[in-house]
Write a structure and sequence with these properties.
The chain is an alpha+beta fold and 294 residues long. The chain has three domains: 7-74 and 126-149, 2-Layer Sandwich (Ribosomal Protein S5, domain 2); 76-120, no CATH class; 151-290, Butyryl-CoA Dehydrogenase, subunit A, domain 3. The chain contains seven helices and six strands, in the order βββαββαβααααα. A hairpin with a 2-residue loop joins strand 1 and strand 2. Helix 3 (124-196) runs antiparallel to helix 5 and helix 3 packs antiparallel against helix 7 (270-290). It is elongated and about 120 Å long. The N and C termini lie close together (11 Å).
């Protein structure tokens, strides 16, 4: 079954130390791209989150937004950089002494803008707890996300199947009209010769040879046969569990477009040309739908 590349999934998980909200949204993309927006406290899980998602998704531009609030514990340790603070204080005291200012005027506010004055380290004691909770939240959001992908994919698949149903009788009409093209050419050729030399049509062998050459040039039997095969294969793929079915369907659609273009270029029959145009129109609509299929 087909899956859409456009979908949304969300989860809101209550954990022992707070809660985690995960939102997953995707749009069309030929290849897989995953962008994760994490709070600073959970940044070291970025690579793991991408692995969890890529195990279920093969195409699309995936945006993951994770927010978390911690009520009792946080997954990191905040430590003072005491050597840096000491040196900074001594530097201010020297400046004050040089400028004849009160050395006792130094206060903690002077340390606020000093880079790395406060250090943040991973809290390995709680890391596994946060990883398990985060993975659970991501998996719930993924389930909702995939369910929406399947639902949207079913709608796309139904639309494509309906268009293939419309194409089938058009192709059958083309197939039925194919033998008449040679006969029409023969009648046209004889009529032309009668017009040039009335009552003196000779050398039937040359006429037959000319008609045979023409018949070979306009023969579209192979193209029609291949087109029917492509339709059958198209339906098989839509019903399969093939990963990245959209890529295979895109290739098949290109082949179908090539066959119908050849049919159109070979035939001068106005009714065939009319059906060729309609088939091209339906193929273009299918192409637009396939762009949104994983």
């Amino acid at each position: 079954m087909l899956k859409s590349m456009t979908a949304y999934g969300r989860s809101n998980l209550k954990i022992a130390v707070g809660h985690i909200v995960v939102e997953i949204q995707s749009v069309n993309r030929k290849h897989l791209e995953i962008h994760v927006n994490l709070p600073n406290e959970l940044e070291y899980f970025d690579i793991e989150i991408k692995k969890w998602i890529s195990a279920h998704v093969s195409r699309g531009n995936i945006n993951v937004k994770i927010t978390a609030s911690f009520e009792t514990e946080v997954p990191f340790k905040v430590l003072p950089n005491l050597p840096l603070a000491k040196q900074t204080k001594e530097a201010w005291e020297k400046i004050a002494e040089h400028l004849l200012l009160d050395k006792n005027a130094f206060n903690l506010a002077m340390l606020v803008d000093v880079p790395d004055i406060v250090l943040i380290e991973e809290n390995s004691e709680f890391q596994e707890v946060y990883r398990d909770s985060l993975k659970e939240a991501v998996e719930v959001a993924l389930q909702n996300f995939i369910a929406m992908r399947m639902e949207e994919g079913n709608i796309l698949q139904q639309d494509i199947e309906n268009r293939l149903v419309l194409i089938h009788p058009m192709l059958q009409r083309i197939e039925k009209r194919t033998p008449f093209a040679t006969q029409k050419y023969r009648e046209k050729l004889i009529a032309r010769l009668e017009e040039i030399v009335p009552g003196h049509i000779e050398n039937e062998e040359k006429i037959l040879r000319e008609i045979a050459v023409f018949a070979e040039k306009i023969d579209i039997t192979e193209e029609i046969t291949r087109f029917f095969c492509h339709i059958s294969r198209f339906k098989e793929i839509m019903q399969s569990t093939l990963q990245s079915a959209g890529k295979t369907l895109e290739f098949l659609l290109q082949e179908m477009a090539r066959e119908i273009n050849t049919i159109g270029s070979k035939s001068s029959d106005i009714d065939i040309s009319r059906d060729v145009i309609e088939i091209k129109s339906e193929l273009e609509r299918i192409r637009e739908q396939i762009q949104n299929i994983e």
